[in-house]
Design a protein that fits this description.
Chain lengths: 368, 368
């Protein structure tokens, strides 16, 4: 955060993001969905997946690595399930439509699940889980991603950061929201430390010879060459449970790929055999569980609220004044960002100026 | 393993376990289910949840803390969902019947999920996930448990070890099977180290003042007094992702309790307000996903097999000759135990002899 120089009001930024997407040929409704996903990331304080990725989307669209028009095909369907081909459209639109299908099925039959292939970067995983929570359901969302995590006893980036998202409504203003990589950390956090010229904590990343790496710049340059790898949750080896994080990551890979015969592991590098950039071909898995099939919604809301309040009331560690439950930090950040605007560091400022230049969008007065 | 003195053939041990359960008043069919769950734990090499717990079941039954006759009530039902009250019967029978209901629903509608309240110790979580895999489905099983894990920034044992189990069939002999606590470790492993007079690794357990504890005997005596707590996967604080293990544990607690208004967190201590031992009131959540609703079973089997083989073929760490995928170790252990028998250490030998004495089952010639 040291390098932060300016904050842009949320509404102004949303308008800009949406206009960039539309200038890329994305239809109005779809551009609104993409914007909503990106800004939600910034509102949650997850800077790696929000406006910070707009330039990446722009360039992938410009280079025809993904399609601005999102045509999804339903490959297979039953009362509770769908298999969808995203045809390399916009990942956020594919994710939004797929989770809506899961929600519709859950409303009718109690549970709905949708497996997706040939998708692209879909932003934060938590967005889709939250969609279900807003409908009074439990939502789950999983995705695979380009290889950067080593399996236990290995050093090669093989698995993606493969996040798990889980959301449920509560009797409080703040929903329960878990949204986390199955690795200890993810590339975005290392990029933040790199820009701030800080080191990464020991135990996050290993080299090809299984030594801890702590230089962010070194790490970022070596992951693509398979000379550095992130570690799964639980760390290296089995002593602190690294095999558990690795196993959870494998589960996410299975759900995101095996059910729809999609690409997996090394196939998600984003490059073909000749080293040419290609479609991303990422896979997702969405699930919605209709709470009213189990209990009246207000009863469930109170039950989960009681669990969360009981956790927060648990005895604190010395020097700690508060125990959080999942979703609270994002909820508080959302309020803060709405009041103060989205933080823009030097690199992001350059990205935005580049897009303004490229697309002739200089009417946005961000830098006054 | 240092202390191991004898191995008992699997079939002989199964017969004994089943007879103990029947002498406790458990009907024949139910005793067979309970035996199958316990012996599966020993076959998987999870000594903490197998025959090692038989004495505990015997004593809880003798003290009327759970019922030998398992009457389950279906409280609420829809095409894909059930809420079940286990009425403090045998957890393994409750789990077995509940997962079978989920499997039946999945066969008919694609997905089935069952939430259970008022259950008791149900053995290893993985048994129920495996039931679905044997039927060509993805199986998931979750349970809460007595408080022993501290939330991030806390020191009080608040959450259970809250395991996640996930299983799926593959094109290999060995199914994919993930079965792990959301904490770094569990009490059983600390008991094993205690008997072997070894220390626990740093980072597994903290004291009330958030200091690492490494004396197993000290740890085991202090957890019930809330003066020691296991740490969630990812360890203390947030630097290595402890909040992720804590969040996953919270998800398991929500699924295992909030959907059926069951007991949670401190309510699962096994003691009432006056310190008297009481019903355990644990909750479970089971899910089955019918793979054929997504893809032909043989296609899925090959897809998942390809993922697992690709993981195993990933580059090894220096000095490591093999990368495992979840379920392989259990599968190999199963073969080994079938050939060599179940290991019985001194404490377990004493437990078995005690049960032989109590129930007049001296005809079993374990110690020849």
């Amino acid at each position: 955060m040291d390098e932060q120089i300016v904050r842009i009001p949320v509404d102004m930024l949303k308008e800009f993001i949406c206009e960039v997407f539309m200038r890329c040929g994305i239809p109005n409704d779809d551009a609104n969905i993409c914007t909503e996903v990106l800004i939600t990331s910034d509102l949650h304080g997850i800077e790696s997946h929000g406006i910070g990725r707009l330039k990446m989307y722009y360039e992938r669209l410009k280079n025809k690595l993904q399609n601005p028009i999102t045509n999804i095909n339903i490959i297979k369907e039953s009362q509770t399930t769908s298999v969808i081909d995203g045809n390399h459209g916009m990942g956020m639109v594919i994710g939004f439509k797929s989770m809506n299908i899961a929600i519709q099925k859950a409303r009718q039959f109690g549970i709905g699940a949708v497996a997706v292939r040939n998708s692209t970067h879909f932003g934060i995983d938590g967005f889709y889980a939250l969609m279900a929570a807003k409908e009074g359901m439990i939502g789950m969302s999983f995705t695979n991603a380009r290889p950067c995590v080593a399996p236990t006893f290995g050093t090669q980036p093989t698995l993606g950061t493969n996040p798990i998202a889980f959301s449920a409504p509560t009797d409080e203003e703040c929903p329960f929201l878990y949204d986390a990589a199955t690795s200890i950390t993810q590339r975005g956090k290392i990029e933040v430390l790199d820009r701030a010229e800080k080191t990464t904590p020991e135990g996050w990343v290993i080299s090809k010879d299984a030594k801890t790496m702590t230089n962010p710049n070194d790490i970022l340059s070596k992951i693509p060459n398979q000379e550095a790898a992130l570690l799964p949750l639980g760390g290296e080896g089995e002593i602190l449970g690294g095999h558990k994080g690795y196993g959870l990551s494998t589960i996410v890979e299975i759900l995101s790929s095996a059910l729809q015969s999609g690409a997996f592991l090394f196939q998600l590098s984003g490059y073909d055999d000749k080293g040419k950039a290609t479609h991303f071909r990422v896979g997702h898995f969405f699930m919605a569980i209709n709470i009213v099939n189990f209990a009246p919604l207000d009863v469930f809301r109170k039950n989960i609220g009681d669990i969360l309040r009981s956790l927060r009331a648990s005895l604190k560690s010395p020097g700690k004044s508060r125990i959080y439950t999942a979703g609270e930090k994002e909820f508080e950040m959302r309020k803060f960002i709405h009041e103060n605007g989205v933080p823009v560091n030097r690199k992001l400022e350059n990205d935005i100026k580049y897009l303004q230049e490229e697309l002739n969008l200089k009417n946005y007065n961000f830098w006054a």
